[in-house]
């Protein structure tokens, strides 16, 4: 398992640019948190880049993420990677019993929401502040497909204060803003 193989697999399964950018944003957050927690940065990056790789082919639950997990198993990806990816979908009832799984769940919806907040701003993510994200979270009509409940549950499971988590993810996404289309 290495990052380039994971990236190639994601590209093989996903042609939608917006979905690719979402996976890049989650990868950026996973990479940053791996560094913060002293974990395997490449492994956590792989989890971020592959967490939705099967979504375009299998958009309906439980096919996503179970079909993708089958592909990853056939390709020899480790159990903890597959379980983290399965766990990001609550309906799979796979416990998020590792920090990697908790971080993926806590970052997935938030990355999508931060991207949505960024694209409507003149300077995109460059000057996005936590207060702006929190204000938009209260607006149920804004990015209505993003689950506020999953964001809250993820933060609770991760055990990091809301403001700190939002700022950390914004900073992580800023580090890859060009690839995310947020410049």
Q: Please name the CATH topology.
A: Hypothetical protein af1432
Number of strands: 0
Unreliable parts: none
Radius of gyration: 15 Å
| Number of separate domains | 1
N-to-C span: 31 Å
Commentary on this structure:
This protein is mainly alpha-helical. It has helices at 3-13, 17-37, 41-50, 63-74, 79-87, 99-119, 130-138, 148-158, 162-174, 177-180. α1 (3-13) runs parallel beside α3 (41-50), α2 (17-37) packs across α6 (99-119) and α2 (17-37) packs across α9 (162-174). The N and C termini lie far apart (31 Å).
Topology of this protein?
Blueprint: H1 3-13, H2 17-37, H3 41-50, H4 63-74, H5 79-87, H6 99-119, H7 130-138, H8 148-158, H9 162-174, H10 177-180
Briefly, what is this?
With 183 residues, this protein is an all-alpha fold. It is built from 10 helices and no strands.
Which labels suit this protein?
single chain, 183 residues, mainly alpha, Hypothetical protein af1432
